[in-house]
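Ticket closed. Logging final result for Ribosomal RNA small subunit methyltransferase A.
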Amino acid sequence: MSVKAKKHLGQHFLKDELIAQQIADSLTGKGYEKVLEIGPGMGVLTKYLLQKKFTTHVIEIDTESVEYLKAHYLNLTNRIILNNFLKINLFEYFGNNQVAIIGNFPYNISTQIVFKTLENKHQIPEFSGMFQKEVAKRIAEKEGSKVYGILSVLTQAFYNVEYLFTVPPTVFNPPPKVDSGVIRLTRKENYILPVNEKLFYRVVKTAFQQRRKTLRNSLKIMNLSNNLREDSIFAKRPEQLSVQEFINLTSKIEKDAV
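Final structure:
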């Protein structure tokens, strides 16, 4: 019995045991005892996670995959969640426990998985997963690059990001049309921002929505004082600002509004 990959779920099953083991090994196990794997499919990654010292849970939306896992991983049965990760409340399943996230993520929802992780950062100390290479690079990219953007800044504000390795299409069934990339996010010790988080998100998103313009023009919509807009930072374009500079900018805007 095997599970057929479903296009509407963005499934590409990993078939390379060595890569599955490398992804499982990318979790450090520091600061948590529970791990949640998103989209385990037929369990090629799950198998290696179950050999670790932490307790592995899986969440899967595909009922056929769930039946397969129940039949082949008997010791996992009580820890299989049939649900959509994007819609669950982590507290309902894990209480106040810290839980790491891992997976070979469906490309069509991978950025949403990152945003959901950021929403639950207080509970997710580590995150390791496989994305379309282009998305993985974007999350890990530093300022000064054309692909540095909203996803890069918001993720790096709360997590240290490492691009670990690239994976070719040939190790999947069916093979995707592009390379994949595996990254690891490790939550920063000081992940609580010294500024209003909602305002920080708004500043970053507004700035990058017109990324070719200087901040003086792209942030016009925020009704900043003329005095503040004379600050030299407003002559820059958003991709020139580091994460820390975006935090400093938010702080200036916060004070300007008082």
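The CA atoms of residues 90 and 120 lie 8 Å apart. No further action required.
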